[in-house]
Amino acid sequence: MSAVKHLDTMEFEQLPLVADLPVPMGPAAPLPVAPLGAAAIAQPAGTTAKQAVAPKVAAPKIHLDLPDGVPAYWAEACRQLMRRDRVLKRLIPQLGSQALQPCGQEQAFATLARSIIGQQISAKSAKTLWNKFARLPAAMQPEQVLRLKVDDMRGAGLSARKVDYLVDLALHFTEHRLHMDEWAQMSDEVIIAELMSIRGLSRWTAENFLIYCLGRPNVLPLDDAGLIQGISLNHFSGDPVSRSDAREVAEAWKPWCTVATWYIWRSLEAQPVA
């Protein structure tokens, strides 16, 4: 019979204890780290885990083919808004070839006059009425409008109230009640208050003037039905939206509320008519 004992028959005391084994001395070697993901692909010998981390690839920039005449801030505003708002991230590239082109301060009187004429009527009727009125003065200047006869203005289709509003508007310009030379340094709210001193001009009209004429970057016209509808359709799947809801959505838009509002408006043009 063999003299070799199997392990399970050996005396417990005969097994070497871990504490009795020799312990190697010297600096501890770092434990190997297995690379994960892309770093696990074949690497040159001697490459450390830190060196093997794959570099982050920047997302490709979306090119916006903007037309001439857009505000200088428009492109940067679009880039920031696409990072902050999931809806604008989709809308802006779709409408990237379109952008606001403000008419400029030199068109201030004509812009406000047209706003007065277009009040409380359809866009088609407003265009027809404006074309009739615009043929009356030699030039669309406040001095020329003040020379018009009331009967001629009424004959073009203007109501008595709109005639009064246009006269008051012209007087604000000719009597220098508006501080146009200081508008560039004035805040939006101060300009809005100044414009609302003109008869027939509401806050909505003043805010639209800041957008379409002066090109102010951070105007949020919460009284605008189109903006509320656009936020409802794009951000709330068509559910009703309050001014508070709209203001909360627009927190992510600052300081580019004008740009966001403009693209929300444009998105409605693609909506089917109910």
Descriptive report:
- Among the domains are: 73-101 and 220-270, Endonuclease Iii, domain 2; 105-213, Orthogonal Bundle (Endonuclease III, domain 1), CATH 1.10.340.
- The chain is elongated.
- It is mainly α.
- Mean pLDDT is 84; it is low at 4-21.
- The protein has helices at 49-52, 74-84, 86-94, 108-117, 123-134, 142-146, 150-155, 160-174, 188-195, 203-212, 225-235, 243-250, 257-268.
Keywords:
Endonuclease Iii, domain 2, mainly alpha, Endonuclease III, domain 1, 274 residues
Outline:
By secondary structure, the chain is mainly alpha-helical.
Q: What is the element layout, followed by pairings?
A:
Layout: H1 49-52, H2 74-84, H3 86-94, H4 108-117, H5 123-134, H6 142-146, H7 150-155, H8 160-174, H9 188-195, H10 203-212, H11 225-235, H12 243-250, H13 257-268
Helix pairs in contact: 2-3, 4-8, 9-10, 11-13
Radius of gyration: 35 Å
Shape: elongated
CATH fold annotation of the domain at 105-213: Endonuclease III, domain 1
Distance between the termini: 101 Å
The helix fraction, in percent, is 40-55%
* Relative strand content: under 5%
CATH superfamily of the domain at 105-213: Hypothetical protein, domain 2
Total DSSP helices = 13
Quickly give the CATH architecture of the domain at 105-213: Orthogonal Bundle
Residue stretches low in confidence (pLDDT < 50, at least 5 long) are 4-21
Number of strands: 0
